[in-house]
Amino acid sequence: MMLKLQVFVVKANIEVGSSYWEISSLQAVSAHKWRSIIRHSGVSQERETQCKQVVDLRKRINPPLEKDCFGNMVYLTSATASVEELLDRGLGWAALQIRKLVSSQTNENCRSFAYDWVRNVKNLKLGIGSKVDGDTILIASSPRFEVYNKDFGWGKPIAARSGLSSSFNGKLTLFPGSNEGSFDVQATLRSDVLVNLLADVEFLEHVTTILHD
C-alpha cells in the first residue's frame, strides 16, 4: 500500500509541476476519490461538484490550541469545480484545488467563522437521513488520528470504523491503516456507484483490499 501511495503522490505532483504547490498524500488520495466517485455518479458535465473538507482549527488560529484540545474545533469548507473540469483536467489539477483550499484557511478565516457561528448558532445534523446530492462528497476525520495504540482489554485493534449514525451518501471517513503509511477509507455510497467503482481499473490500481481473519 505504501508503494502505491508514493507513486500516486508523485503522479499528482508531476501533473501540478510546481514545488510551491506541493501535493500531500492526503490531498492526492482525496482528489482521486473525488474524481472516481463523481465519474460514476451519473452527474451531467455542466453541473457543479464539491469536495467538502472538515478543517481542523487548532493549529490555524493564533495563538494555536494544543492538538489534544477537547471539543469540535472544526468547520466545513469546499473545493468546487464543474464536473467537466474535474474529470478532464486530471488528478493533479483536482489535488491542486484541494491544496489551495487548505492553504486559504488562515487565522482570519477561522476567527471570522467562529464569530459568525456564535452570532448565528446552527446545530449541524449529519447522519441517518441526511441528504447530500450525488454531486458532492464530504471527507471527514484524518489518517493522523491515532487508533492502533489503544487497548481497552480486547487486544490491539485490527481496524477502525465510524458508526451508522455518521454515514450518509457521499461521506468518506479517513483512518490510518493498520500498515504504517497507509490509509483506510470508509465510504458510504449508492450501490450503483460502488458497483461501477469495483469495475474501474484506474480506481482499483490504487486500492488494496485487506481481509481479516
UniProtKB/TrEMBL annotation:
Q: Which GO terms describe its molecular function?
A: transferase activity
Could you tell me the keywords of this UniProt record?
Transferase
In this record, what's one Pfam family?
Transferase
Q: What is this protein called?
A: Acetyltransferase
Source species of the chain? Cardamine amara subsp. amara
